[in-house]
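Could you show me just one protein sequence together with its fold in token form as a worked example?
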Amino acid sequence: MNWTLPNDPFGAFCRGNHIATEGSGKGPLSGLTFAAKDVFAIAGSITGFGHPEWLRTHTAETVTASAVQRILDAGATLAGKTLTDELTYSLTGENHHYGTPRNPHDAARVPGGSSSGSAVAVAAALVDFSLGSDCGGSVRVPASYCGVFGIRTTHGRIPLDGAVPFAPSFDCVGWFARSADMMLKVAKVLLDEPAPTARFNRFILCVDGFATPSRDIQEALMPNVARMERILGSVEPVTIAADGLDAWSETFRIIQAFEIWQSLGDWIRANNPEFGPGVRERMARAATIDQEAADSARAHRNAIAARMDAVLTPESVLCLPTAPRTAPHRGLPTDDVEVAFRHQAMNLSCIAGLAGLPQVSMPIAAHDGLPIGLSLVGPKGSDMALLRLAKIVCEGP
């Protein structure tokens, strides 16, 4: 059902392949509206994947992605598809071909990516909630920059059929909302878990994660850490990466790039698409990662996953900044984005990604009037429990 595009002064929604779909009208999400990142198949529309050449070389979907279908079956209505970065290979939200969705907190700042349009649609109250996907931080970073809740779910917890493959060993379904209650409503549908089955009683502070941002960002976050300590009991400082988060994020980068080229390399060679700054350089590097480098990085990843399993015992929760800073300005030089922004952001987001863990970003801090997220990471399968804890921390029991 291809209704008129929603009123969208923030540039969050896709235009060339817009589609809206009525929900079942019955179920726990009845009466709500949502948006879906343009990586999910919607029957009757072409998946655009953030690039006009992808849109041109693909045909309309015949089956809707199961994550989207679950939401429709639960009663919510799809208002439209939302913009994503080019082939989702960025964390800024700046799309060379389609433009940049406007951050509702400051139009001069990026919204974060690659689930940029989905985050903006929620932050601007254009929809009640929205679906995104997260590989290297694509839900968590825009949630932080746009001042909304966002979750990266346990890897493999929610089926990704009908979503364009990117780096499959990292790709996850995620979503955004303005309240923890709404996050939980969506979780009950997508996770098929009526109530949390885990309870946290060990509160771990990620020492190396908190060392990543500048002192002023640390100071903005620490009152909320103190609030969590009052809820959970004494805090236990732990250095997560003995070999350094730089080494962890490099391992993530190598595996991710290798998998991306396996997923997209044939299409890129066949169509020679034009890429914008940043994405162009990342794709060129991805084409050079060989099997030996990928295998070596995967061995390191296995050690990292074992380390995280040892740290995050079943009743433990890890706290760390979602991003190293508030939203950067739009249009920064590529070198600045890569070094001062992307690398530091990946140092934080790679922790959950490498171990396949769930992470919730909470919009409970600000610096210079701009939001900055604080994150909770839990053991595999603790998604609902994390969201319940986020509600208690942000909104009370």
Summary: Strands lie at 33-37, 77-82, 129-134, 149-152, 172-177, 202-206, 235-238, 316-321, 359-367, 370-377. The chain has a mean pLDDT of 95.
